[in-house]
Amino acid sequence: MLTVAILINGNPIMARSAVRGERSPDGRIAYLVDDGATIQHDPDDGAVALAQKLLDRIVEQGAPSCAPESLRPSSRRKISNEPRSRYS
Which one-letter DSSP state was computed for residue 36? Predict the structure, then answer.
């Protein structure tokens, strides 16, 4: 099992875990992610690449996402790029 966590001042604010599954004929390994997804990973790419794939699956509520459009919930509110007044 691999868990990637984001901590602020020692307090976890987000985490994503995955359990190793079967190896495919081409050498990639399937990982079952705690959000129900399955990701494929080539062990030759290293653990950091696998951790990045897990981080890419985290969608922060109410903030712009770096995740690919296909991973973003369709019900997300639109975020304006217009500057906000600090008094509004």
Answer: S
